[in-house]
Amino acid sequence: MVATDTHRAIETVWRIESPRLIAGLTRLVHDIGVAEELAQDALVAALEQWPADGVPDNPGAWLMTTARRRGIDRIRRDETFRRKAGEIGRSLEQTVPDIAVQVTEDDGIGDDLLRLVFVACHPVLSTEARAALTLRLLGGLTTGEIARAFLVPEPTVAQRIVRAKKALATARVPFEVPRRDELAGRLSSVLEVVYLIFNEGYAATAGDDWMRPALCGDALRLGRVLARLVPREPEVHGLVALMEIQASRTAARTGPGGEPILLADQNRARWDRLLIGRGLTALDRAEALIDGPPGPYVLQAAIAACHARARHFEDTDWVRITALYEVLAATTPSPVVEINRAVALTMAYGPDAGLALLDQLAAFPAVRGYHLLASVRGDFLVRLGRHAEARTEFERAAALTRNERERTLLLDRAAACVSG
């Protein structure tokens, strides 16, 4: 039983400390792949020693000390590192701390974490590779956990991670925070990856589950870390606000059997008021930092806040939401934004207004196979009393989605339509 408890403690410590550990080691050895191997070596050492010796008072410092010492041994032993032995070996020997030394933000770990975020989310990598590498290095997830989260084979995730590390090494991506003139573009890549991870947890693309809350939690944790590392960036706080508010609905979004519950039908008493409060505070912080037009995450957080402030669905300020979507559509146009804007138009001004916008969207080939377009169109047609057409749209949406829970919901809605 003691060994089991120790292994659970090691797992918890690893989730918390591994990003800091890999970040600090990357600064020293200048290679993410090697840094992760050294971190894994330290984990193995912990699994061997802690069950017998007990968890040290400062497990993070213990892991860092062990990893750095393994790094010294590796540099001395490995022929491929011989040319670097003098420079990096001396650096490591000088920086190996005593086990009792606290690993804190003052040791540069905060800066190292920020550098690791930008490297893992570098645009040289594909979006899928960025997401996998970020969850591995910063989320502390195993390859198997990432594969299960995104419903892809474990070897596929492993290949993405290996190729990502090789691509970073080949491109000689520096372990540094981008220069100020590059920061905005690179930061948007980081935020895109974090939000991609959150969205996959909030509305799963495929599979048997409507949500994967653990993935939302991983994204929120990454977002909160990022907000501490770059506290003056409004879009970072905007994304955190958006995720906090969206995550507050988790308990109300599914029924006892895991079936989806749409926004209008949710029991808002089950919304997490603590997360809503945190989200609204983050939104206030973001808006206070804005110097110019608001960015897409701040705008989306403001829309989410409108829903969060409404105690009942009927109290929602749809006119304000419509106005916010118009700004968002002008600054960050996308089919998803336009579909959501059509929903807001319908709720504020009637289904004819929303249907007109959807019909314009349907003319573009890129969205014709998008299941949400058909689903939302079906809802508008129900409101207009055009039930036969609505049923066709719901059935079409059900055929297009890859999520089993969503397919069942759409087929139920189709069955509920009575020909007019």
TrEMBL record:
Residues 18-78 form the RNA polymerase sigma-70 region domain. SUPFAM superfamilies: Sigma2 domain of RNA polymerase sigma factors (SSF88946), Sigma3 and sigma4 domains of RNA polymerase sigma factors (SSF88659). Residues 186-286 form the DUF6596 domain. It comes from the Bacteria. Keywords: Sigma factor, Transcription, Transcription regulation. It holds the Pfam family Sigma70_r4_2. The keyword Transcription regulation applies. Belongs to the sigma-70 factor family. ECF subfamily. This is RNA polymerase sigma factor.
